[in-house]
Amino acid sequence: MSTEAPEAPAPEDPRRGTTLRSSKGRMADPLFKWAVASCGTIVLVILALMVLRTTTEAWPVFAKEGFFGFLTGEQWQSGNSRSEITGTYGAWPFIYGTLVTATIAIVIALPLAIMVSFYLTHMAPRRIAKPLSYTVELLAAVPSVIFGLWGLHWFLPNVLRPFFEFLEGVLGWFFLFEGPIRGVGYLSAGIVLAIMILPIMTAIIREVIAVHPVEQRMAAYALGSTRWEVLRNVVLPASFSGIVAAAMLGLGRALGETIAVLMLIGGSQSWGASLFGTGSSMASHIAATFGEATPESRTALMAIGVALFLVTMIVNILARVIVWRLGRMTGDAAV
Amino acid sequence: MVVAMIPLVLIVFEVTRRGIGVVNLDFVTQVEPPPRREGGGYAAGFFGTLYIMALAVLMSIPFGIATAVYIVEYGPNRLTSAIRFFTDVMTGIPSIFVGLFVYGLLVIGWGGMGFGTFVGAVAIAVMMLPIVTRSSEEMLRLVPNEMRNASYGLGARKWQTIVHTVLPAAAPGLTTGSMLAIARGIGETAPLLLTAFGTGLVVTTFQGDPQGAVPMQLYRGATQPFEAGIDRAWGAALCLFVLVLAFTVVARWVGSKASTNAH
Q1: So what's the ipTM on this one?
Q2: A317 and B89: CB-CB below 8 Å?
Q3: Taking residues A255-260, what's their average pLDDT?
């Protein structure tokens, strides 16, 4: 694949470099431009192919169930026909799982991210701020399968289970915290997701808060505000759109995360109101059942993928538009 | 505000504690026995990861850097802003969807290539491409315009300027971006489940037979009930973590050296 660039065909009318006599020299510049430009358009081609290929692949399922019928249906029964769709495919339990885990993650991670960024930019002494921000970056680099392993075999039995038992004891009458506690479930997946999206949200909120004019803060301090009041009444309102963008990027991450959720959500095909209950998210259901799926139900899994893609794209594009309008890309493609 | 540090410290501690006893030479050179039995290792996974990553690097890094060159040296125009925007968008695509796409496109689609090393590498390359592009773009922008002008002043053409002046000047930064992308690619699991599919054996074929990888084997080891298999999963987690950490830290180090040189 990578060898195609230098052998690109020459354009007919090279308008540049006419001063040089050799035709080879004259061709070089347009050729080079053509080569890098075609590499650049690969991104667009890949995205277009992605949309086209998966949608056509999933089309029979949408045609049978109807787009909204597919999204709201509660039955998932695979058929094993090779030519037509014979099963019943409703993605609602998985959509519900995705929404619940992502919401839990955002609710926990957003306040934490705001406080960590505020601390990093305004309060931390330099020699603490540097290693701390380095730590947050490293946290972003940890592969999600390690989060899953750690979550399942250490965090869950040692921290989450006692916490859940406490929660159930105190708030068990409330439908969200009804037992039985299985350990794995929506809440476990959501809490581990919160840890996973904390870095990206912190990175962006930190950028946004850092550019907030220092004079405004100093003025607020001069009027006798406490640090909390400065954060609450001066910094947050000014950085609001940036924080929304960060929350949405984190949300995009949380919606699409697969392996860690798969290991912690329990993998059942039912859904229920209790946060201790087990379920599946859209991504985790695809990964969990793909291996043993019949060709027909792989088509249906593709349909879940398309729905997931649509949602994450909307969330991401909105977030990117906000960030771009702020004109402050973090410049860190790794986060 | 230690809150941000707690999870990382806990993960590092636990992965090291449970993994350190498992990792030895056998762990890298032997294949995994049935999950009930102790001993053996992730040779299949390590070989598969190396194979897949080598192919993915060949596919993603040249294209990523070329795209960044186009954006920085020939932009801004309508095409480059579209490319920039969609590269950003691409970083947010769920990895499982990339797996589904490559499955639909290559595994059952055009040619029906089946599961294998190559399609797995394509999926990882698609994940890495936007990371390489975005970070390379930032790095190329750091190259001062005086250098370009000096090169033009000596009579160099644009392509000569780019190849002989801009790219060498940005080389450390480009290395940083590529290494961060590799660190991300090594740990990817979800797209491989749908493309490389996974196996417990060392597979050398380029395409057509399911190929394994460390994260996939780790996932399968962690989600089965036998203690020996879970122990090996912790060992694999330690190896994976050290690899990712090494790439990330070295990348940052090269990058920070480059940016202090540039100013």
Answers
A1: 0.91
A2: yes
A3: 91
pLDDT (tens digit per residue) in B67-88: 999 999 997 889 999 999 889 8
Residues A36, A173: one domain? no
Mean model confidence pLDDT for chain A: 83
Q: Are A45 and A64 in contact (CB under 8 A)?
A: no
Residues A45 and A106 occupy one common structural domain:
no
Tell me B187's DSSP state.
Answer: T
Task: Reply yes or no on whether the pLDDT at A48 is more than 50.
Answer: yes
Q: Please indicate, yes or no, whether residues A141 and A272 belong to a single structural domain of this protein.
A: yes
- A40: nearest CA partner in chain B: B67
Residue A66 to chain B, least CA–CA distance (Å): 21
Residue type, A79: G
CATH number at residue B10: 1.10.3720.10
Residue of B nearest to A257 (CA): B94
CA separation for the pair B64, B68 (Å, rounded): 6
**Do the Cβ atoms of B104 and A53 come closer than 8 Å?**
yes
Please name the member of A39, A43, A198 whose beta carbon is closest to the beta carbon of B87.
A43
Cross-strand partners of B197: B211
Within this chain, do residues A134 and A57 fall inside the same structural domain, yes or no? Answer: no
Instruction: Name the residue range of residue B206's domain.
Output: 2-26+39-262
The answer to whether the CB atoms of B222 and A152 lie below 8 A apart is yes
Phi and psi at B245, nearest 5°, equal -60, -45
pLDDT in tens, A173-202: 777 777 778 888 999 999 999 999 998 888
Mutate to test the interface with A, among B63, B197, B259 (most CBs of A within 10 A): B63
Q: Which chain A residues contact residue B124 at CB under 8 A?
A: none
